[in-house]
Amino acid sequence: MVRMRNAKGSNATEIEKKIKRGNALRQGSAWRGYRGPVALLLVSVCACTVAVWMYIYSLDSDITETLVSQRELVSSHPRVYTVQCSEDYDNQKRYPGCTPQKCGRAVTDSVVTREEAQILRRLAERGLGLAGSEGGASILDLHSGALSMGKQFVNIYRDVRGRIQAVIAETFGLDPALLYLTKPTFFSRINSTAAKTQHDEYWHPHIDKVTYGSFDYTSLLYLSDYGSDFTGGRFIFMDQSGNRTVEPRAGRVSFFSSGSENLHRVEKVSWGTRYAITVSFTCDPAHAISDPTLP
Ligand SMILES: O=C(O)CCC(=O)C(=O)O
Ligand SMILES: [Fe+2]
User: Fold this and answer.
1) Which pLDDT band holds residue 3 (cuts at 50, 70, 90)?
2) Closest by CA position to 155, among listed 123, 131, 189, 188
3) pLDDT at residue number 68
4) Are residues 256 and 83 in contact, defined by beta-carbon separation less than 8 angstroms?
5) Model confidence over 51-97: pLDDT tens digits?
6) 68, 263, 266: which to mutate for ligand 1, most atoms within 8 A of CB?
7) What is the model's pTM?
8) 86, 131, 171, 245, 279 from 102: Cα distances, Å
9) Residue 4: band (very low, low, confident or very high) from pLDDT cuts 50, 70, 90
10) I need a surface site. Which of 59, 142, 186, 206 has the fewest CB within 10 A?
11) What is the whole-number distance in angstroms between the Cα of residue 171 and the centre of ligand 2?
12) Ligand with minimal distance to 263 CA
């Protein structure tokens, strides 16, 4: 009798175990059934977050039109956008063959090679690596050619600057000999570190002719790539009809007449490091800076 009860008891335990195993299996397969939809939900939530973030980001930079994207290659001829000249040039002495009569902006990727841009970027990295601002923006002014790092630097910089001068003259119908390099002409390095002084606040809208005085034509040679070396940091022309941007690309030269027809700003850099060189020209020989000379 006791044995039978024991037998019955052990049977019951077996059955209980089976039921428990069955329940566990059912629960497991139920969860397995949910796994697909849950993963889909997670992916959708992530995609939505990214989309919202991108939307907010695009609102922040408020871009109406991208004039030239980083991916594009503007070869053979510069891409030119003509704009009406402001009156800024009427209030100063005019220099025929130089003072802007035709105003606008242009971009070319065929004046400076990516290899040349890389060499200049290495120089900028080394030069600015010696010091630099605590905030996000540092410059290394090289207008006098005071930084000489072997022959290559002087040769490349001189050569590059000559080619930029030639393309500006050709695009705006000027005599290249009547354009003079002016100051400041500088390397810039920008990252996302918060500004510590107002010198770090590179993002304010400005007119180069007002900010720097002597500029008639501004050129920017980019030494790094928007999107892969850094994000944010696009150049923005602030027109009454909207904002138009040029995305930096290593070796890209963007140039424009420096008056208020070309009010602009640089978007805040959100990630990475952006290198560029600002090279500018004046029509007024009194504001010319002499070429760096080799001993
Ligand atoms: O680096 C740039 O894209 C623009 C810099 C600038 O606006 C300036 O140097 O005046
Ligand atoms: Fe500027």
Assistant:
1) very low
2) 123
3) 98
4) no
5) 655 554 554 558 889 999 999 999 989 999 999 999 999 988 999 99
6) 266
7) 0.77
8) 10, 40, 9, 21, 20
9) very low
10) 59
11) 20
12) 2
| Residue 246 CA, closest ligand 1 atom number | 3
Length of the chain as a residue count: 295
Rounded to the nearest angstrom, the distance between the alpha carbon of 53 and the centre of ligand 1 is 27
Centre of ligand 1 to C-alpha 77, Å, is: 23
Instruction: Collect all residues with Cβ–Cβ distance below 8 Å to 150 and sequence separation of at least 6.
Output: none
Which amino acid does the sequence have at 160?
Answer: V
Could you give the residue numbers annotated as active site?
A: 274
Q: Distance from the CA of 278 to the center of ligand 1, in angstroms? A: 6
145 touches 183 (CB < 8 A): no
In this predicted model, what pLDDT tens digit does every residue of 114-170 receive, in sequence order?
Answer: 999 998 899 888 877 777 666 777 777 766 554 555 555 556 677 889 999 999 999
Give yes or no for a contact between 258 and 280, defined as CB atoms under 8 angstroms apart.
yes
Which atom of ligand 1 is the closest one to the Cα of 264?
7
Mean pLDDT of 13-32: 63
Collect residues with CB below 5 Å from ion ligand 2: 208
The first and second tokens of residue 184, run together, are: 């400041």
**Residue owning the nearest CA to atom 9 of ligand 1:** 278
